What we know:
Layout: E1 2-7, H1 12-25, E2 28-32, H2 42-48, E3 56-60, H3 63-69, E4 76-79, E5 85-86, E6 96-100, H4 109-114, E7 119-121, H5 133-148
Parallel strand pairs: 1-2, 1-6, 2-3, 4-6, 4-7, 5-7
Helix pairs in contact: 1-2, 1-5
Amino acid sequence: MLHIVLVEPQIPQNTGNIGRLCVATNSILHLIKPLGFSTNQKELKRAGLDYWQNLKVYEWENLDSFWESYPPNNAHFFFSTKARELHYEAQFQKECFLYFGREDKGLDSQILARFENQIYKLPMSALARSINLATCVGAVTYEALRQNGIYKEF
C-alpha cells in the first residue's frame, strides 16, 4: 500500500488529479493542513471526477500529528527539486510514504535537513525549475509500484 502525503497543497485541481491517481493505484491520500483550498471546492471534485467517492483520503492538522500515527522511518521518502538522488534510485517498499510539498515552495527546509538521506527528485532539464505536482506524484507512484511488482496485481 502506498501512502501519498501532500504537505500543504495549494491548488485544488492538482489534489483532485492526485486523488484520482490514488484510486487508480489503490493508494491512500493524506492531506497535511493548512490546505490552500476547501476539500468541498468544485475544482477539486471536478479534477477527481466521480473517483473522489472511492478515494481513501485523510486530513491531518499538521505533519507532527501525522507522524504520531506514522512515525518516520526508512519507508518515508521525500521529493524535492533540491535533492541529489533520482527517484528511481530510491528503494521503495511495498508499504511506503511518498511526501510532496506545496506547489509554490516545496517541502520545508527543516524537513529536507532532517531527512537528508531520504530525499529524491525527478530528472529534468536545466530549463525547468520544476514540473507539475500531479505529474511528479504520478511518476514516483508508478516507479514505486514497478519496483514492487504491484502493478501486476491490477
